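Students often ask why inverse folding is considered easier than folding. One informal answer: many sequences map to the same fold, so there is more than one right answer. In these notes we will look at a single instance of the problem. The structure comes first.
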């Protein structure tokens, strides 16, 4: 067997990877007469659920920011018995003030899956998060929420390449991400063939991925590492427009150097 471990880094990566896993799930067969066109052991791992039943979940790590997972829980129906839903008051004897964000409502697509009904057609109006059209259960170890940044934050946007590099360095120094996240999936493989990464390429996730690949190359130098880098066309257009505006301003200054100097002197 030649297994592949997947890493998904950020919103754009998870939107694409969710389609990938949904497609993999569609190849499953449930009787002896039908033969699957793919070997599911490459991308899926066997396991045991909270009730002792056998499970088959993706060999993947899903990284995203706080607030980006939608209705997807770390502990799903297969593993919910291990979730501590009521942690208790602890050692504090004073009055507690609990602040909770309003719950995210389940999408119509997910409601249809739970009810065993045909799923509705997806559109930009009905999809709020990539988890809105996810069709699989994941192992709790697959869900990695990065609480240092929040999705769509204006005060601390996760955009610049260097921000992603710094975040990876800080997290890796504190937790050793390969040891904590990657190694458990890699060591359960009979013969690890490759690691594949889905990642944004022109934002902070690009910097995060670049540092991650460096560490993977050091640790798994003999294994293939595939990177599916995704660019944001809208962002590229904004950068292009900003560059045009800046160039136009510089040309205007060059054409009227005297007026520009006089204005500064005034």
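Output (designed amino acids):
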């Amino acid at each position: 067997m030649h297994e592949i471990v997947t890493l998904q880094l950020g919103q754009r990566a998870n939107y694409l990877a969710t389609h990938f896993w949904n497609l993999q799930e569609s190849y499953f067969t449930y009787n002896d007469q039908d033969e699957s066109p793919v070997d599911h052991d490459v991308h899926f791992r066997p396991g045991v659920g909270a009730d002792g039943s056998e499970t088959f979940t993706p060999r993947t790590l899903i990284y995203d920011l706080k607030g980006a997972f939608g209705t997807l829980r770390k502990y799903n129906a297969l593993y919910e018995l291990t979730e501590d839903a009521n942690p208790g008051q602890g050692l504090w004897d004073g009055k507690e003030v609990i602040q909770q964000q309003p719950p995210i409502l389940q999408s119509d697509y997910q409601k249809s899956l739970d009810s065993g009904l045909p799923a509705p057609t997806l559109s930009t109006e009905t999809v709020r998060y990539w988890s809105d059209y996810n069709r699989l259960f994941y192992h709790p170890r697959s869900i990695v929420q990065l609480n240092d940044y929040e999705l769509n934050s204006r005060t601390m946007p996760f955009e610049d390449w260097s921000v992603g590099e710094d975040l990876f360095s800080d997290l890796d120094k504190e937790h050793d991400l390969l040891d904590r996240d990657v190694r458990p999936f890699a060591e359960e493989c009979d013969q690890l063939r490759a690691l594949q990464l889905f990642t944004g390429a022109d934002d902070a996730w690009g910097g995060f991925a670049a540092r991650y690949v460096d560490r993977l190359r050091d640790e798994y130098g003999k294994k293939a590492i595939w990177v599916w880098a995704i660019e944001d066309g809208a962002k590229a257009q904004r950068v292009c427009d900003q560059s045009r505006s800046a160039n136009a301003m510089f040309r205007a200054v060059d054409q009227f150097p005297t007026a520009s100097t006089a204005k500064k002197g005034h």
